[in-house]
Amino acid sequence: MQDIAEAFSLALTLVFSGDADLWEIVALSLRVSLTATGLACLLGFPFGAIVAIARFRGRGALIILMNALMGLPPVVVGLLVYLHLSRSGPLGFLGLLYTPTAMIIAQTILIAPIVAALSRQVLEDLHGEYAEQFRSLCLTRRQTAQALLWDARYSLMTVALAGFGRAVAEVGAVILVGGNIDHLTRVMTTAIALETSKGDLPLALALGIVLLVLALGVNAGVQALRVGAARSAYA
């Protein structure tokens, strides 16, 4: 117990003393995850809107596929990205393997289906409420999608935060394509795994504390946005 208490004490010291190595890892984690979340939203929101308002043959199967892809195994995503970016892969000439860019690609592929599927559900429910009004205004599909995206902006921000929470906690895919290289591709989750295996519990616990605070912050943000959206709806 004394060793654990001492490790926690040292971990808190690392967090509040502004340890350079610790915050370098945190900064890279945030940069990778925020970039991946932004790209996933750019891809997922329009795709979710199209599926929400369009009616075409095979739509039901596409929705089932979208929902299934929400549960993509991270290590499988990491393996597929690795195979494409390795020297013998089709994109090997880009030299992206074991770089933050490769980690961003893996995280984007992992969370884009989550963003698309959740936004599709949100926008489809909203479209059902306003379908008659849209038809009376003779809006095109593009105009309808733009109107839905704007009206559901608070709910979609919740979806984006959910995607970010999934990305920042990811370890399997990023360690495969990033390699966990010190001062280059080491993020919080991979560093926690490495430092724990090395027995460096203070650094692992410090990173765990930061990651836990981020997770709580994301959940608080989601709740705040839900409350804000509910108030806007009743305003």
Automatic annotation (TrEMBL):
Family of the protein in this entry: Belongs to the binding-protein-dependent transport system permease family.
Keyword Transcription regulation: no
Pfam family, one: BPD_transp_1
Principal location listed in the UniProt entry: membrane
Membrane topology term: Multi-pass membrane protein
ABC transmembrane type-1 domain boundaries: 26-222
Protein name: ABC transporter permease
Keyword Membrane attributed: yes
Compartment(s) of residence: Cell membrane
PANTHER family the UniProt entry points to: PERMEASE COMPONENT OF TUNGSTATE ABC TRANSPORTER (PTHR43632:SF1)
Keywords associated with the record: Membrane, Transmembrane, Transmembrane helix, Transport
